[in-house]
Every structure is written in structure tokens, then in C-alpha cells.
Specification:
Layout lengths: L4 H18 L10 H8 L3 H13 L3 E4 L3 E4 L6 H20 L5 H19 L3 H18 L3 H24 L1 H19 L3 H12 L12 H8 L1
Antiparallel strand pairs: 1-2
Length: 224
């Protein structure tokens, strides 16, 4: 028997979000709830709920009220996202600092170890997922679901536009792991100010070497 609609909808949302982030569902690609439901092994109802949520995030759009597709992206939007993400990241990192305990810091270390392994094995999709998990974990650690939702909603677009190329670049991948580790180490020794400083800068820096944001064609080339 299929699980509750709410639970399956959440699972469908996470899966579809992941496919959009890693390029499995490319910008402009038409989405069929029937095909996705068959692929996920569930009914169409939770898939429709997931699509509706992703529409609210701006990742899926309906054209002329008939065709549902992955929304297109503009790589220059990264510059528009930079300032609000930096501001929200500072709030998240500041709020999370006093709340993090030994177990939570250990979990952050575990996530970062997964990230390092993905980098070393050139698994750029794995890098993207581990990076998302790290940012989401810290956002939730803030204890403010509105703040966490606001940050991760923007970060979804940020990672979607620039993430695949950024994470596929070996040098930048190493920077991700090192930044995360510096943030963790700062929290562990009680230096919240340093953790906030590093996380704020880290979360809003999304260009490959030379400050060049690659085109979608180059993004597809990097995935090969």
C-alpha cells in the first residue's frame, strides 16, 4: 500500500528538486506528471503536489496554461542572488552558533567527509548533494524555519544556475570542503564570529576561477 500522500509528496519533491539541480531535468524540459509518477513508483497526486511546490519556488513553470516545464535560467541572476544570500547566511550562521552541540557538530563533520569523498572521486553530483545537505543542515540548526526556508529557497536557484559547473571544477570543489571544515572548526572552538564570517563569504561566492560564470552549453560539456 502506498504511504501517506504527504510523505510521498515530500519524497517526490526532494527527488524532483535533485533532478533539477543536477541537470537530469534540464531547463526548458517538458514535465509529465504521469511519466514521473511511473518512474517514482507512486500515484500522480503526490507528484502534482511536488510540482506545485516547485512552481512556488520558481523552478517549474506552466506555459500558456498547458505545458509544464523546468523553468529556464539566466546565469547573470547569480549576481542578483549574491547579496540576499549573503545577508541570510549571516543571520543563519549567527543564530545556529549558540545552538550547535557536540552531536550536531559531529554530523556536520560527517556530511563534510561525504563531500570530500565525492570530490576525490570526481562525483560532481555527489558533491552538489553533499554541499546542499551541509547548507540545509546549518540553516535548520538556526532554529528558525522561516529563515531556513528563505535561505534555502534562494540557494536552490543559486545552486541550480551555477552549481554543476562550479562543483565539477576540481579546484573549486576543494575550496568547498576546506571552507566547510573551517566553519565547523570555528564552531567547535566556540569562535562564532569566525564561523559567521567564513559561512557568509562562502555561501555567496559562486564563480569559477577568473570570475567567469559558464554558459549552459559549457555546463552540459562539463557534465560529460
Amino acid at each position: 500500500m502506498e504511504g501517506s500522500v504527504k510523505t510521498v509528496s515530500q519524497q517526490a519533491f526532494v527527488t524532483l528538486r535533485g533532478w533539477i539541480l543536477d541537470g537530469t531535468l534540464a531547463p526548458g524540459q517538458i514535465i509529465s506528471d504521469e511519466e514521473i509518477a511511473e518512474r517514482l513508483g507512486c500515484s500522480r497526486t503526490p507528484v502534482r503536489e511536488a510540482i506545485k511546490t516547485l512552481q512556488q519556488f520558481g523552478c517549474i513553470e506552466t506555459i500558456r496554461g498547458r505545458v509544464t516545464q523546468v523553468s529556464t535560467v539566466d546565469r547573470h541572476d547569480l549576481y542578483l542572488l549574491d547579496a540576499p544570500i549573503a545577508a541570510l547566511s549571516r543571520l543563519v550562521a549567527t543564530a545556529a552558533g549558540p545552538r550547535l552541540d557536540v552531536e550536531e557538530i559531529a554530523q556536520m563533520n560527517k556530511i563534510n567527509s561525504v563531500l570530500r569523498d565525492a570530490i576525490e572521486s570526481s562525483d560532481f553530483v555527489g558533491v552538489m548533494r553533499a554541499n546542499w545537505e551541509f547548507h540545509e543542515y546549518l540553516a535548520n540548526a538556526s532554529g528558525n524555519r522561516y529563515l531556513a526556508d528563505a535561505l534555502m529557497g534562494l540557494f536552490l536557484h543559486y545552486q541550480r544556475i551555477g552549481g554543476v559547473v562550479y562543483f565539477a571544477h576540481p579546484v573549486e570543489g576543494q575550496y568547498l570542503w576546506r571552507d566547510h571544515q573551517e566553519i565547523i572548526d570555528a564552531y567547535e572552538r566556540g569562535d562564532i564570529d569566525r564561523a559567521v564570517e567564513v559561512f557568509t563569504e562562502h555561501a555567496s561566492t559562486y564563480t569559477v576561477p577568473g570570475n567567469v560564470i559558464l554558459s549552459l552549453d559549457e555546463l552540459q560539456q562539463a557534465r560529460r
